[in-house]
Amino acid sequence: MKDILKKTTAFFIAIILMLSNISCVFAEDNANLGLTSKSYVLMEESTGNVLVEGNSHEKLPPASVTKVMTLLLIFEALEQGKIKYDDMVTVSSHAASMGGSQVFLEEGETQTVKDMIKCISIASANDASVAMAEFLGGSEEGFVQMMNDRAKELGMNDTNFVNACGLDVDGHVTSAYDIAVMSRELIKNHPEIKEYSTTWQDTIVHKTRKGENEFGLTNTNKLIKQYSKATGLKTGSTGKALYCLSATAENENIKLIAVIMAAPDPTTRFNEAVKLLDYGFANYGIEQAGKKGDIVAEVPIYKGSEKTVRGKTAEDVSILIKKGEDAKIETKTETIPNITAPINEGDKIGEIVYIADGKEQGRCDIVAENSVDKINISEMMMRLLSIWCR
Questions:
Q1: Catalytic residue flag (residue 194)
Q2: 188 flagged as catalytic
Q3: With CB atoms 3.0 to 4.6 Å apart as the test, which of 42, 70, 103, 122 could cross-link to 52 if both were Cys?
């Protein structure tokens, strides 16, 4: 009886281990690329679709890839007019004290916002990152709160920032997936980052009480020189984080984001990012499913001077397709019920859903083509009279 029990137990343990291994193999490398980094993800920029992933939601220290969020907040502040490129930023003693990668800013030194962006994007400067954090947030702590608030807005559920530059500190974590999300937000909505992230070498001029001297900047992302499709974005490495990278690249009409976390060495970091990018370019493409302004619906308006309003698409819509597959794209409109006048041109009146191979591949707001006023008494009487006459 004991032998039977032992054999039965061993059988079930073997089954469990086998299933566990299958699950792990799939989670670690569902494209059979043989990657060894602890966590990674490949995302397509226009749709946000994940093409390859391995442990992509594991919370890990991100090192200087943290600066993707720092840069995102800087570019958003520029877009909103809160700061300007030629604003002067004064370096505090706290910012000047940062270790790790830096451009050796001195306390009291001033640099323009534009030059600070160069230092962060090209040289991964911790001192410049903290100086900009204090400039925007009043203090690094205030800026970190802004970082975490923005992360929540973007649905970065694996993330908690503790500083603005990525130096190792307990509790400062994110995931490969979340890095891809914030990288996508930066490159999609602020393409001007490419001016900095693709620059191999540049200079700044240190302006201190001792005088002025030129300081050289060299990009920490070797893919800019080694991979012809590379467009950025940010490297990172510390003792805890090991070697990390958010690599962006584009080819023809498709843009990809490859994130590597906890690679054992810098060569592996870059090589495995290239493997992901090459896989994406070889196997996927983008097809335009709809153009901004396409008329896709006619929606009834309650108490309107017009009975209906035509709905148009609010933006271009792209669909991710697998190369070699003839995907048939279908659409489905979902309009808001019981829309009551008045409505303004551009008001959202529904959504259009794009479906390929039975799966939703994207959706877009449907907005009113024109304004519709609320019906007045005389128009209402005329409308009722025409109904009665019929």
A1: no
A2: no
A3: 42
From the candidates 64, 101, 129, 318, which is the catalytic residue?
64
Please check whether residues 219 and 368 belong to one and the same domain: no
pLDDT (tens digit per residue) in 68-110: 999 999 999 999 999 999 999 999 999 999 989 999 999 999 9
348 occurs within a structural domain: yes
Instruction: Report pTM.
Output: 0.82
Alpha-carbon distance 256 to 248, whole Å? 6
Q: Domain of 341?
A: 291-389
Distances (CA, A) of 304 to 347, 351, 364, 378: 14, 21, 25, 13
Burial 47-68 (b: 16+ CB within 10 A, else e): beebbbbbbbebbbbbbbbbbb
- The CATH number of the domain holding residue 244 is 3.40.710.10
Residues across the chain? 390
- Strand pairing report for 211-218 and 284-290: unpaired
**Residues ≥6 apart with Cβ < 8 Å to 178:** 151, 154, 156, 157, 158, 159
Considering the domain architecture, whether residues 154 and 125 belong to the same structural domain is answered as yes
Catalytic residue among 101, 124, 175, 183: 124
Q: What is the pLDDT of residues 11-58, one digit of tens each?
A: 333 333 333 332 232 233 456 899 999 999 999 998 899 999 999 999
- Told to judge if 124 belongs to the known catalytic residues of this protein, a careful annotator would answer yes
